[in-house]
Amino acid sequence: MNLTRILIFSGLVGSALIGGVCFCFGTAVMSSLQRMPAGQGATAMNLINVRIQNPLFLLIFLGTALVCVALVILAFVQDTPGKWWVVAGSALYLVGVIVVSMAINLPLNDHLATIDPNSTAGAAEWQNYLTKWNPANNIRTLTSTLAVIAFALALQAGAGSTTDTSRPPVNVYTAGR
Predict the structure, then answer these.
(1) Has residue 86 got a pLDDT over 60?
(2) 10 and 60 Cβ atoms separated by less than 8 Å
(3) C-alpha distances in angstroms, 19 versus 73, 137, 168?
(4) CA-to-CA distance for 48 and 52, rounded, in angstroms?
(5) Based on the number of CB atoms within 10 Å of its own CB, is 149 exposed (0-12), middle (13-18) or buried (19 or more)?
(6) DSSP string computed for 118-168
(7) Is the dihedral of CA 53, 40, 102, 19 positive or negative?
(8) In this structure, what DSSP letter does residue 26 have?
(9) Alpha-carbon distance 155 to 163, whole Å?
(10) Positive or negative, the Cα torsion across 10, 83, 79, 165?
């Protein structure tokens, strides 16, 4: 396995892990927080937003972004089968996860941390937060899932493979007969 295939596999795994986090937030965490009194839901989300900024999560979240940047560069330097799947997977992760997070989810998180969640204004802000944060998270879930599929298709197509074409392939059914 060469470096490109390792990077594609890393992009696939990283996208899957982040997609899983986003999926869990969308299907369980946020709907649970919404059912709590506004002050409690907002307070819990603020705690989650602090705790998620840990080295392991950031390694996967940002490390996958770096892998995707490297993969796009390699895709245009090397002409390999499946390179457009590599570019698609990388673009889906970079735009659908990183850009959406930086443009929508993280600013909303930062703003939520500045309000008093137990005030009337805080309750209104919590509802506003949920109205904007949840659809953006759904985009992250969908695009990271599509990135996984694209990276899998790239691997299936042989992207980054180092097949030696100077020798004919070995037929495993007749080899050694």
Answers:
(1) yes
(2) no
(3) 23, 10, 40
(4) 6
(5) middle
(6) TSHHHHHHHHHHHHHHHHHHHHHHHHHHHHHHHHHHHHHHTTT----TTSP
(7) positive
(8) I
(9) 13
(10) positive
Q: Is the pLDDT score of 167 beyond 80?
A: no
At position 75, the amino acid (one-letter code) is A
Task: Quick: pLDDT tens for 127-158.
Answer: 999 999 999 999 999 999 999 999 999 999 98
Residue with tokens 């008093």: 116
Residue 110 contacts residue 175 (beta carbons within 8 Å) = no
Q: Report pLDDT digits (tens) over 1-38.
A: 799 999 999 999 999 999 999 999 999 999 999 999 98
Length of the chain counted residue by residue: 177
Please report, for residues 9, 68, 70, 93, the alpha-carbon distance to residue 147 in angstroms, rounded to integers and kept in the order given: 11, 10, 15, 6
Q: What are the Cα distances from residue 130, in Å, to 20, 45, 83, 163?
A: 20, 11, 38, 50
Quick one: tokens of 141?
């879930």
What CA–CA distance (Å, rounded) separates 62 from 156?
25
> How many angstroms separate the first and last alpha carbons of the chain?
28
Instruction: Return the domain boundaries, the chain.
Output: 3-157
